Structure formats: C-alpha cells, structure tokens
Amino acid sequence: ETGVTQSPTHLIKTRGQQVTLRCSSQSGHNTVSWYQQALGQGPQFIFQYYREEENGRGNFPPRFSGLQFPNYSSELNVNALELDDSALYLCASSLSAGDNSPLHFGNGTRLTVT
Amino acid sequence: DQQVKQNSPSLSVQEGRISILNCDYTNSMFDYFLWYKKYPAEGPTFLISISSIKDKNEDGRFTVFLNKSAKHLSLHIVPSQPGDSAVYFCAASAKSGTYKYIFGTGTRLKVLA
Q1: Contacts 24+ apart (CB under 8 A), B59-65
Q2: What is the pLDDT of residue B37?
Q3: Residue B33 sits at the chain A interface (C-beta within 8 Å)
Q4: In what order do the strands lie in the sheet with B62-67?
Q5: Closest approach of chain B CAs to the CA of A114, in angstroms?
Q6: Chain B contacts of A109, Cβ < 8 Å?
Q7: Percent of chain A having pLDDT more than 70?
Q8: Residue B11's beta-bridge partner residues?
Q9: Distance (Å) from the C-alpha of residue A47 to the closest C-alpha of chain B?
Q10: Stretch B51-66: mean pLDDT, rounded?
Q11: Strand, helix or coil at A69?
C-alpha cells in the first residue's frame, strides 16, 4: 500500500511569486485535504477535494486554489505569495468525504517565502 | 477563534509512567475526535479516534476519554515509552460540516528514560 507522497519536500520562493505543490493520495483514497501548518501551530484546514470538486474550504483567500485529478492526486496553487505563507503544507487523503475517515498525511512541503 | 484547544504546550513524563494529554473544544456540533502524533520532518500519524456516542476508546497502550458535558477529551498513554516522544494533536469534526478536521495547537510530549 502506497502512502501519501508530496513534492517537493522544500521550496524557497520570493514574495509575489506563484507556487504549485503536488500530492499523490494513498491507494484507494478518493478525498484529498490540504492543511497549512505555521510554526508552533496546529494544521489549519485550507480545502478538501472529492471527485475532482472542491468540497469545503477553510478561511483562506482565493489566491489559494487547488485541483484534483481523475487519479485522485491533487495540486495546491498559491498566487501572489506573501511572507506569512511560509509554512509546512500538508496533504492528507482519506477513504471518503462522506464519513469520519481518518486523514492520512504526507510528510509535507516546507515553503519559505523571502 | 480557537475551537480546539490544547492548553499544555509541553509535558515531560518518566518512562513507564502514564502520560495524559488534554484537549478542550468549544463547538458542541463536534461529533468525532481524533489524536495524531507527529515526529519532526514527518506528517502527523493517526493514533486513535472516538465518536461522540462513546466516552472511551482503547487501543493497546492508548486510551481516549471523552467528556461531552465538559467538552473535554484526553489521551492516556500507559506505559509511556521514549519512542512516544513527539508532538500530539487532537482534532475534531462535525457531521454537519464537510468533515474537515479542526486541529489543536499540539502538546510536545517528552518521555524520559
């Protein structure tokens, strides 16, 4: 069973740039959620994708957008990067969006915005 | 508005003793709760969960207790082992929502050998 994989592991960008983070879900999982974890904080929900559609969104501005592909992999795009976007971005997959399936997390992408 | 709170940022326990990690929540709609463990440079790993219809769930050395009237849950680890040293997050979700999980800020557990 293949777990959740994220790429890249680390990334450094400049303020104002755009970034795309990628995630492959665990085998058999059709739902992907993205979380932002700032230093010293818990993961904050960005959005969830189920069957290629956004299925819930946290308190993040529209410059945070995403995609889910037919194979359930997903991308997180962030436009017009700000210094406060520096964080660990975690992708998590789950069996289904419709029940209390535990999230299975990848190891994250560490984004640094300078 | 922090709906899930872990008020103890850190906890140190002797090996073999009990570790008790606490979590409080404010949203009475939450009906499912989970605990995750996170090692440095790794993503959080699911440990144990509990539904609001129960007040206790046990899995090996890990037991989660839920007190709905107090909006409080706790994770007990017995006996504690050095490998348990990690950051522990509690998370909650509401069926009426989109099953997004709201996480606490974490408690760093250090088990001393």
Answers
A1: B62/B35, B64/B33, B64/B35
A2: 97
A3: no
A4: B4-5, B19-25, B72-77, B62-67, B56-59
A5: 21
A6: none
A7: 96
A8: B109
A9: 8
A10: 96
A11: coil
